[in-house]
Amino acid sequence: MKKALFPVLVILALLSSACTKQSGAASGKVTLELFSTKPENQTTYQGLISAFHAENPDITINLSSPPEAGTVLRSRLTKNDIPDLIALGGDATYRELSSAGVLLDLSGQSFLDRINGSYQQMLYDLHADKSKTPYGVPYAANGSGILYNKDIFSQYNVALPETWDALLITAKAFKAAGVNPFLLTFANNWTTLPPWNSMAPVLAPADFGLDRAKGTTSFAGTHEKVLEQYIQILDLCGNDFMGTSYDDGNKAFAEGKAAMMINGNWSIAEFLKTNPGMKVDMLTFPSSNDKSKNTITSGVDVAFTVSAATKNKDAALKFIEFMTRPEISQRYIDEQFAFSAVKGVDQNNPTVQGVKETIAEGRVSDFVDHLYPAGFDLASILSAFALNYTNRMDNTQNIRETLQNCDTEYNALQ
Amino acid sequence: MKNKISFHFYLMILPLVVLFFVLHTFPFLQGLFYSLTNWKGYGPWEFTGLHNYTQMFRDPKIAEAYLFTFKFTICATLLVNILSMSIACGLNAKIKLKNFLRAVYFLPYILGSLVVSYVFKQIFSNIIPVWAKALGIPALSVNILGTNHAWLGILFVTVWQSLAFNTIIYLSGLQSIDPDVYEAASIDGCTGFRTFRKITFPLIAPFFTINMVLCGKGFLMMFDQVLALTNGGPGTTTQTIAVLIYKRGFNGGQFAYQSANAAVLFFVVIGLSLFQMKFLERREKKYE
Fold it and tell me: I need a surface site. Which of A146, B30, B231, B264 has the fewest CB within 10 A?
């Protein structure tokens, strides 16, 4: 009888040991988890964390930066296993976390004074109740527009386009010279978003996001111009854009296979991996013919938040204080080609000089897709739009159906 | 005492029953429970009754995913069974290098489906178009995964990989046939395809049943290959039910709603499997 019980006991023992969590580390030492949703900045974080460890020997920060981090984070939330520190973008995930009450209110922390107010406002805009409670500390901002190959532009002696018409003329000139004007990578759905995000804030009504949420407006009737111009870009795109993946496209662009790519500063580090000597710069997307209206798309790329349930609140705040010091922030943006949300920290890298002036003039608009509800899969809708285009669907019909799709999908989420 | 099954047998299966309940049945019941709420995956929630289920029937995306999954399941099941039965017959015949070839045909089963899919993704995007351009075949000169025919690419990879396991099952079925039967048939003048139709196929009917059921179940829950090859795109043209559940359930904050979808999928799979078993077993009986 006892022999028969043995395997059962073994199994039960295994189960119970799997269920009990490893209890806390030795006295005095605290270990924190920093969860990051951005795979591109892992190495930078590791370097900064080492610097933090040197200053605070009693605190250990463990970085976890899994692939598909947004999904991982959500599934961890379902298990109520919330990381102490979460570094995430100012997007729909942030909106959900901030309204679900799982983030610590950071009001009164001195490091908030170091932060640029307009980026803090971008986070407030995401709050479901529009409250001005600082649940997150904006840290780095990104920028999206047109990335162009400087060497190709100077080789063909082409001026930088500042209006929509000029962009078309430039692109056509490249095409005539046998150079692929635009390289698009729609095999990865999300890359259909940057052109939309650049054009929609300029060409669609200003309060569209809010009005659409109220139900007083619709995509149909407001976004036709965006898609018309989108098609003009597709007309000038010279690669198998539906079948090119983001990775392959970045490599091809770095090898000089095209003049322009419509994407953000996060791609630059990828180009330089393939071709460290590449001369690349960013250009404000000329959505309209009125130069003064065109904006650079910039949003909060990294914001630090703290779990409301963390047992190591002081250590977590100490880490944020450390990260927001100007010299540390400078190091971060230099390595990441990003823009700092910390006051007085400037991005001086030549790869993004083309947009510095636009940003200084304040011609900045947030990523419009951050203002749509989570689950509104605009990337899939635009990918279907591009597929229709390659199937030679009539453009007017394609635009009409795509915008109808946007409205139907949006309504289905209510 | 004589008819009573020894207590030890129950003890032996107990660990597995406990594990199965804890890791499978309990989460499933939890999912059923949450499908009756409006839970987003975290935070507060309340009961909404059958609202998620009624909403499903009004959601065009869900209908689209079900249609695509059924289309895919039918094509894949037919292809896999026809091909694996042919391969099994070939591998069961007296051919040279029989054991080596059996190993070769079993190889795809050992590889992880994500690995296989990523390799094929590379082949579709960087190898086939280059060859097709060199050979002047315009139809294949673009990445098939970015066209209307993306599903054919997925079908190819899935069938290629699924063949292995089904071939093994058919092979074991073929080996269970007594050679005397064939001898008797050949004395009666039965040859070639007729032997297959009149003798082989009826005798491996139970294996046909099990393969059909396993294929049907497996392909209705298609996930890995789609996620790796196209992530449901272009647009949502290759979005299977499982991919939809995953993408919208976790990324879209529709945890409860997609739990309802998962529950419906579960009953669809059970229903279809039972139907297949009943239908095919009746067919088996004809031969007994």
Answer: B30
Residue whose token pair is 């949006």: A410
Q: Which residues of B lie closer than 8 Å to A, measured between beta carbons? A: 7-8, 11-12, 14-15, 18-19, 22, 40-43, 59-61, 121, 124-126, 129, 141-148, 231-237, 247-248, 250-255
CB contact under 8 A, B143 and A244: yes
Give how far A71 is from chain B: nearest CA, Å: 6
Q: CB of A104 within 8 A of CB of A305? A: yes
Minimum-distance CB partner of A8 among B14, B121, B148: B14
Calpha distance A163→A167 (Å, rounded): 6
Contact: B61, A412; criterion CB under 8 Å: yes
Q: What tokens appear for A206 in the block?
A: 């200003």
Q: For residue B72, what is the enclosing H or E element? A: helix B60-92
- pLDDT-derived band of residue B287, with 50, 70 and 90 as boundaries? low
Best probe of the B interface among A3, A11, A74, by most B CBs < 10 A, is: A74
CA–CA separation, B178 and A16 (whole Å): 51
Which of the four pLDDT bands, split at 50, 70 and 90, describes residue A118? Answer: confident
Give first-to-last CA distance, chain B, whole Å: 37
* pLDDT tens by residue, B237-270: 999 999 999 988 877 778 899 999 999 999 999 9
Q: Which among A4, A99, A187 has CB closest to B145?
A: A187
Separation CA B270–CA A339 (nearest Å): 54
Residues in chain A: 414
Q: Is the peptide bond before B234 cis (omega within 30 degrees of 0)?
A: yes
With contact defined as beta carbons under 8 Å apart, do A146 and A354 qualify?
A: no
pLDDT tens by residue, A165-204: 999 999 999 999 999 999 999 999 999 999 999 999 999 9
Strands A364-365 and A296-306: parallel
Three-class SS of B47-64: ECCCHHHHHHHHCHHHHH
* Closest residue in chain A to residue B148, using alpha carbons only: A387
- Provide the pLDDT confidence category of residue A130 given band limits of 50, 70 and 90: confident
* Rounded CA separation A206/A113 (Å): 29
Euclidean distance between CA atoms A317 and A105, whole angstroms: 11
Q: Which residues of B173-209 are buried (b: 16+ CB within 10 A; e: fewer)?
A: bbeeeeeeeeeebeeeeeeeeeeeeebbeebbbebbb
Nearest to B236 among A70, A375, A380 (CB): A380
User: DSSP label at B287?
Assistant: T
Residue to substitute from A14, A242, A407, A409, interface B, most B β-carbons within 10 A: A242
Instruction: Find tokens 């993946």 and name the residue.
Output: A245
Pick from B248, B219, B229: which is nearest to B61 by CA? Answer: B248
Q: Considering all CA atoms of chain A, what is the largest pairwise distance in Å, rounded to the nearest integer? A: 90
Residue A125's contacts (CB-CB under 8 Å, 6 or more residues apart) are: A366, A371
Q: In this structure, are residues A267 and A147 in contact, taking their beta carbons and an 8 Å threshold?
A: yes
Q: How far, in Å, CA of A332 to CA of A341, rounded?
A: 11
Nearest-angstrom CA–CA distance, A153 and B35: 56
What values do phi and psi take at A103, rounded to 5? -105, 150
User: Rounded CA gap, B126 and B142, in Å?
Assistant: 9
* CB A183, CB A253: distance < 8 Å: yes
Token pair 């909404």 in the structure block, residue: B48
Of A36, A55, A91, nearest to A373 (Cα)? A91
